[in-house]
Write a structure and sequence with these properties.
With about 350 residues, the protein is mainly alpha-helical. Among the domains are: about 80 residues, Orthogonal Bundle (DNA polymerase, domain 1), CATH 1.10.150.130; about 130 residues, hpI Integrase, Chain A (Orthogonal Bundle). Helices cover about 45% and strands about 5% of the residues. A three-stranded antiparallel sheet has the order 1-2-3. Helix 2 packs across helix 4, helix 6 runs antiparallel to helix 8 and helix 6 crosses helix 11. The longest helix is centred in the C-terminal third of the chain and has 22 residues. The radius of gyration is 25 Å and the shape is globular.
Length: about 350
């Protein structure tokens, strides 16, 4: 075991002990963690190692009391609960890695409780913002058809990005208006697909769409069945699809506000805004517990409260008699039949 701090590539962040550097390498190579994730882990582990150094302790010699005191020190420093929780995740992951690799005999974080983090509300897009995003795909070439299908499916079905890129041709039953999705724990569910998403997928599957990106010879087994392909003719990766979503978000000015999961949030929130039953949304999203879905009711309740205060004549006190009649009127729910897609008047759309 080496307790000293090792070298690290310039610009990668602070140098850490060899144990920590080995852990970060494992995260990058074996687990495929993104660069930003690795930077955050490095920063958190640097703080932990500096804390231990102040006690003349190495990572290998850290005790449960050291970990508890480190968490307490972060709290005393005024760190947010989410920041403390994230730091503990990094520390816990490091110690578990060292145990799994046989570098140490025990994990000092095993009995350290995780800080309670206040549950925040999902940051859903407005319906107008979604319309702008869905309209950002220009052209009718193969990449444009694929990208249009990606955005329409993410918003229209609420599926996770991993579920989307995992779709195979046999999972599509567009004539019946459903797709088969494999969620967390390989749990299978049928998800309805509206007409906008259906039209986008059908357009992508035509010879002038997916056919153009189909290689003469498939590089990997299973790629031939993939619904979504990359430029090289292989199955589109999670990272590739994520990057495409962010690119279109940048194009319409959403920037860091947009991720694939934000489209999932927006799907659920807009459905509830338009009167969908929470258990229907739970089934659609593949949540094992209704408690996971209930966070979206908090979003819709907040919107309802804002709309009420803006529209009800006795919500805010005396009404300004000089205000023209009708000014400030807010629609609370809209047509329930429109579901979550603002383009649809009638049956729920994609």
């Amino acid at each position: 075991m080496v307790a000293g701090r090792a070298g690290t590539p310039r610009g990668a962040g602070p140098a850490l002990s060899l144990d920590a550097e080995e852990f970060l390498t494992w995260l990058a190579v074996e687990r495929g963690r993104a660069a930003n994730t690795l930077v955050a882990y490095r920063r958190d582990l640097d703080g932990y190692e500096r804390f231990l150094a102040g006690r003349h302790r190495s990572i290998a010699g850290a005790t449960e009391l050291d970990v508890q005191d480190y968490v307490a020190a972060l709290r005393r420093a005024g760190r947010a609960p989410s920041t403390v929780a994230r730091a503990l995740v990094a520390v816990r992951s490091l110690h578990r890695f060292l145990v799994d690799e046989g570098h140490v005999a025990s994990d000092p974080t095993g009995d350290v409780g995780s800080p309670r983090v206040p549950q925040g509300l999902p940051k859903a897009l407005s319906e107008d913002e979604v319309l702008g995003l869905l309209g950002a795909v220009a052209g009718d070439d193969a990449p444009a058809r694929r990208d249009r299908a990606i955005l329409e499916l993410l918003y229209g079905t609420g599926m996770r990005i991993s579920e989307l890129v995992g779709l195979s041709l046999a999972d599509l039953a567009l004539e019946e208006g459903v797709v088969r999705v494999y969620g967390k724990g390989a749990k299978e569910r049928l998800v309805p697909v509206g007409r906008y998403a259906t039209d986008a997928v059908v357009g992508w599957l035509e010879p002038s769409g997916r056919g153009v990106m189909t290689p003469k010879r498939w590089a990997r087994r299973g790629d031939a069945e993939a619904v979504l392909l990359n430029a090289r003719g292989g199955r589109l990766s999670r990272q590739g699809a994520w990057g495409l979503v962010r690119r279109y978000g940048d194009r319409v000015g959403l920037g860091d506000r947009l991720t694939p999961h934000v489209l999932r949030h927006s799907c659920a929130t807009h459905m509830l805004d338009h009167g969908a039953d929470i258990r229907v949304v739970q089934e659609l999203l593949g949540h094992a517990s209704i408690a996971t879905t209930q966070v979206y009711t908090r979003v819709s309740t907040e919107r309802l409260r804002i709309a009420y205060e803006a529209a009800h004549p006795r919500a805010q006190g005396p009404v300004d008699s000089e205000r023209p009649a009708g000014e400030g009127t807010v629609t609370l729910a809209g047509d329930v039949d429109r579901c979550h897609d603002p383009r649809v008047a009638g049956p729920p759309g994609g």
